[in-house]
Amino acid sequence: MTQALTERNTRELRNRAEALLQRLGVAMPEPGPLPARTPITGGDLASLRASSRAEVDAAVERAATAFRDWRTVPAPVRAAVVRRLAALLAEHQEELGELVTLEAGKIPAEARGEVQEMIDICEFAIGQSRQLYGRTMPSERPGHRLMETWHPLGVVGVISAFNFPVAVWAWNTALALVCGDTVVWKPSETTPLTALACHTLLRRAAVEAGADPEVHQLVQGSAEVGEQLVDDARVALVSATGSVRMGRTVAPRVAARFGRCLLELGGNNAAVVTPSADLDLAARAIVFAAAGTAGQRCTTLRRLIVHADVIGPLLDRVAAAYRQLRVGNPLDEGVLVGPLINSAGYLGMQAALQRALEDGGELICGGERVEGFGEDAFYVRPALVRMPAQTAVVREETFAPILYALPYHDLDAAIDLHNGVPQGLSSAIFTRDQREAERFLAADGSDCGIANVNIGTSGAEIGGAFGGEKETGGGRESGSDSWKAYMRRATNTVNYSTELPLAQGIRFE
Predict the structure, then answer these.
(1) Please, where in the chain does CATH 3.40.309.10 lie?
(2) Beta pairing, strands 423-424 & 465-466
(3) Which family would the database say this protein is a member of (predicted)?
């Protein structure tokens, strides 16, 4: 692709982005030094002005002020904002999905699926607004009632990553709002336009629902903006999605001011394939989990632990599928794998592959750059590497489409391999043996926050709590009782008697 053609394509994408923003009701941002880049060509769609320290401080103050009234609004009434947001997201699913494709490089099916995930969590949160349940416990003292109640926490700071530029924000924001919190969002500096679109839709939803639009604030910029939220004592909860390195910085700084953290960090996810597995089913699941989103999901399958009796036939199936995957512009029909987000992703992938080969790995297929999209766009073929052992590079997360395959001989050894990494997000086993499945799901099986049977590691539904253990951070978002992270618990004792007995039988007379 010539430079002139790349520039023309970038202009077309820029015009497309401007039209999408207009249809979403977003005015083009004021120009500034923060680029909104598309990984499709590597060119800029727009430029924005980053939030200054004073602007971030003012945004937090507006959120803190709005919280004082928002917390007293009944939860089912607060849900009206989320209900209206869900309707606007459904109305604009195509436009917002295409904007995700332009900024994050996802193929349209995945981008629309991400917007659907936003709609789904809104529906979940609406129902949750009538189920913020406490408990009543029996008191040991006669004439007393013992109970717990849940109350809004305060300002929630949401720091999100590029790979899910809208869904993770919605996971946090929909629940935080129905729980009575206000939100300050710092999106990835890589995807600022999708953030502007979501912010606009939410504030519109608030106005149309008769609520204060100041319950949601948006700040844009680099890591310094996020650090300001991390250090601000007015931010009761920092929900941060990103790398383990980022988590190591965020967690102690929030803890130092006795704030709360909800961390969703790295994943080095594995699937165990047993001799009884349906290899055709496993291969289909493996290919999507490993190559989908160009390997740029926290739940991407990165390690394949296969019984020695079936590793050959399974890798043949996966390699054949990999060779048929169409890599290219995600807007083109039939493309299944789009670009890496930037050059750092590409260089990290190449460095990891080189280390794997030095450790005795065999590159079965993939790994090469796909040319023809311009020097600033980075397309790669998903790589399949057979490894003799779980070396240091295999134990690290490389945010790119590399799948390491390792053999095993007995299930206990496979589980040891599986758990022998610092991360603990998602996992899977492929088997038709119920004992093997139950062993994997048991307390001494997978040590991850997500453990699946006969499906891949990615594609979690919003009904279940999402998150992981160990260096993944321990956070839980989305479904189940994840709402509790956004509220504070109070234990209440009510004395309705005329006496004043003390607990534990203590007498003080």
Answers:
(1) 269-462
(2) unpaired
(3) Belongs to the aldehyde dehydrogenase family.
Q: What percent of the chain has pLDDT over 70?
A: 99
Q: For tokens 């869904």, what's the residue?
A: 167
Question: Please, is 48 exposed, middle or buried when counting C-beta atoms within 10 Å of its C-beta (0-12, 13-18, 19+)?
Answer: buried
pLDDT digits (tens, 9 = 90+) for 89-121: 999 999 999 999 999 999 999 999 999 999 999
Phi-psi region of 367 (alpha: psi -120 to 50; beta: other; left: phi over 0): left
Reported as a single tens digit per residue, the pLDDT across 242-300 is: 999 999 999 999 999 999 999 999 999 999 999 999 999 999 999 999 999 999 999 99
Residue 198 pLDDT grade (very low, low, confident, very high; cuts 50, 70, 90): very high
Return d(Cα 50, Cα 311) in angstroms, integer.
50
Third-level CATH fold of 269-462: Aldehyde Dehydrogenase; Chain A, domain 2 (3.40.309)
The 10 Å Cβ neighbour count of residue 130 is 12
Give the CA-trace dihedral at 475, 477, 479, 480, to 10 degrees. 20
- On whether the CB atoms of residues 488 and 153 are closer than 8 A, the answer is yes
Between CA 475 and CA 431 the distance in angstroms is: 29
Return the CA Rg of the chain.
24
CATH 3.40.605.10 region(s) of the chain? 74-265+473-490
| Helix, strand, coil % over all residues of the chain, rounded to 5 | 45, 20, 35
Check residue 485 and give its pLDDT: 98
Catalytically active residues are 264
Q: Record the tokens describing residue 313, joined without a space.
A: 């036939």
Domain 74-265+473-490: CATH superfamily is: Aldehyde Dehydrogenase; Chain A, domain 1 (3.40.605.10)
**Taking Cα atoms as reference points, which of 366, 372, 441, 423 lies closest to residue 400?**
366
Alpha helices in 105-218 (DSSP H): 108-128, 167-178, 192-208
Query: Does the pTM of the predicted model rise above 0.90?
Result: yes
CB 126 within 8 A of CB 178: yes
Residues β-bridged to residue 424: 469
